[in-house]
Amino acid sequence: MLQSLTSNSCVRLIQSNRSAWYFLFLVLGYVLYLIFGAVVFSSVELPYEDLLRQDLRNAKQQFLQENKCLSEDRLETFLAKALDASNYGVSILNNASANWNWDFTSSLFFASTILSTTGYGHTAPLSDGGKAFCIIYSVIGIPFTLLFLTAVVQRIMVFSTRRPIMYVHTRWGLSKPFVALVHANLLAVVAVSCFFLIPAAIFSALEGDWNFLESFYFCFISLSTIGLGDYVPGEAFNQRFRELYKLGITGLLPENWEFDVYLLLGLIAMLVVLETFCELQQLKQLRKMFYLQKEKPVDRLAIMDHDQLAFSAVDHTASPQEEKTEPFVDVPVLTSPGGDDPMIR
């Protein structure tokens, strides 16, 4: 008996706090996913890092042997300065001296990566004034960009998602959740083709050192706003149409105007696809499992209680009045003892 009561109380406790338990499992799953990623990246990348370190040590030792007049300390000092400059996008190589990081098109590309929160990291402000302006520019520009993208996506969703789904639903009488699911998958296929596969093929052709996988990797890292900065278009030596190309990339990237256009349109397309999937009934039900239940506002509850008290007060005050009026309703008829009308007598 005691055991059954305990089990029933545990079941009631779990059911009453179902959202909290779901959230706990969500947190646990996220932590496990982080650990899983760390294990995979470590096992895959660590051997390559070790090999690269060995190659650098061998190259350094060979250079010191061939140039015995140069001490190792002086070489270390020179390499440290070169690496520090490289972290700011400045290279001492002869084939990179013609490329400037802060001309107008490159600055436009940098501004687009700041506002889109992509942040490739290959270029960073050198001066204190530039760093201070970057903070102020980002504080204003990032919310401005979010507002702009939200307004654009809201208008596009009407024509790309809501109207097509409603038309198919009313025209052929198909289930609306089913139509929405099929439409979301078709829209995702179109977006992947137009903003990942085709641009990856273009980048692999324009960037001589990039294969298709590296180009596709760059497109994904850019449009997901991860922006690792290990691949940046238009940075190759003697890049053809470098300024026009970078400006397009900001659509993809700054010195390539094509990249600036690509980046902006790609972000909008990705947001449209994500919003389309978020409106699916199946995902809405899934999200409700982890969200807190909405509670009625306190002021609304107070209004309801006030109305209930008012109605009950009206009911209570109405009954005495009815009791008072009863004598005036049932008034006996006065008659004479002989049965004749007293007024006539």
UniProtKB/TrEMBL annotation:
<keyword id="KW-0770">Synapse</keyword>
<dbReference type="GO" id="GO:0015271">
    <property type="term" value="F:outward rectifier potassium channel activity"/>
</dbReference>
<keyword id="KW-0967">Endosome</keyword>
<dbReference type="GO" id="GO:0055037">
    <property type="term" value="C:recycling endosome"/>
</dbReference>
<dbReference type="InterPro" id="IPR003280">
    <property type="entry name" value="2pore_dom_K_chnl"/>
</dbReference>
<keyword id="KW-1017">Isopeptide bond</keyword>
<keyword id="KW-1015">Disulfide bond</keyword>
<comment type="subunit">
    <text>Homodimer; disulfide-linked. Heterodimer with KCNK2; disulfide-linked. In astrocytes, forms mostly heterodimeric potassium channels with KCNK2, with only a minor proportion of functional channels containing homodimeric KCNK1. Interacts with KCNK3 and KCNK9, forming functional heterodimeric channels. Interacts with GNG4. Identified in a complex with PSD and ARF6; interacts only with PSD that is bound to ARF6. Interacts with UBE2I.</text>
</comment>
<dbReference type="GO" id="GO:0016324">
    <property type="term" value="C:apical plasma membrane"/>
</dbReference>
<keyword id="KW-0631">Potassium channel</keyword>
<keyword id="KW-0812">Transmembrane</keyword>
<dbReference type="InterPro" id="IPR005408">
    <property type="entry name" value="2pore_dom_K_chnl_TWIK"/>
</dbReference>
<dbReference type="Pfam" id="PF07885">
    <property type="entry name" value="Ion_trans_2"/>
</dbReference>
<dbReference type="GO" id="GO:0097060">
    <property type="term" value="C:synaptic membrane"/>
</dbReference>
<feature type="domain" description="Potassium channel">
    <location>
        <begin position="193"/>
        <end position="237"/>
    </location>
</feature>
<keyword id="KW-0407">Ion channel</keyword>
<dbReference type="GO" id="GO:0043204">
    <property type="term" value="C:perikaryon"/>
</dbReference>
<feature type="glycosylation site" description="N-linked (GlcNAc...) asparagine">
    <location>
        <position position="95"/>
    </location>
</feature>
<feature type="domain" description="Potassium channel">
    <location>
        <begin position="95"/>
        <end position="156"/>
    </location>
</feature>
<dbReference type="GO" id="GO:0030425">
    <property type="term" value="C:dendrite"/>
</dbReference>
<keyword id="KW-1133">Transmembrane helix</keyword>
<feature type="transmembrane region" description="Helical">
    <location>
        <begin position="178"/>
        <end position="206"/>
    </location>
</feature>
<keyword id="KW-0813">Transport</keyword>
<dbReference type="GO" id="GO:0030322">
    <property type="term" value="P:stabilization of membrane potential"/>
</dbReference>
<keyword id="KW-1003">Cell membrane</keyword>
<dbReference type="InterPro" id="IPR001779">
    <property type="entry name" value="2pore_dom_K_chnl_TWIK1"/>
</dbReference>
<keyword id="KW-0406">Ion transport</keyword>
<dbReference type="GO" id="GO:0022841">
    <property type="term" value="F:potassium ion leak channel activity"/>
</dbReference>
<dbReference type="InterPro" id="IPR013099">
    <property type="entry name" value="K_chnl_dom"/>
</dbReference>
<comment type="similarity">
    <text>Belongs to the two pore domain potassium channel (TC 1.A.1.8) family.</text>
</comment>
<protein>
    <recommendedName>
        <fullName>Potassium channel subfamily K member</fullName>
    </recommendedName>
</protein>
<keyword id="KW-0966">Cell projection</keyword>
<keyword id="KW-0630">Potassium</keyword>
<keyword id="KW-0472">Membrane</keyword>
<feature type="transmembrane region" description="Helical">
    <location>
        <begin position="21"/>
        <end position="44"/>
    </location>
</feature>
<keyword id="KW-0968">Cytoplasmic vesicle</keyword>
<feature type="transmembrane region" description="Helical">
    <location>
        <begin position="135"/>
        <end position="157"/>
    </location>
</feature>
<keyword id="KW-0633">Potassium transport</keyword>
<dbReference type="InterPro" id="IPR003092">
    <property type="entry name" value="2pore_dom_K_chnl_TASK"/>
</dbReference>
<keyword id="KW-0832">Ubl conjugation</keyword>
<keyword id="KW-0325">Glycoprotein</keyword>
<feature type="transmembrane region" description="Helical">
    <location>
        <begin position="261"/>
        <end position="280"/>
    </location>
</feature>
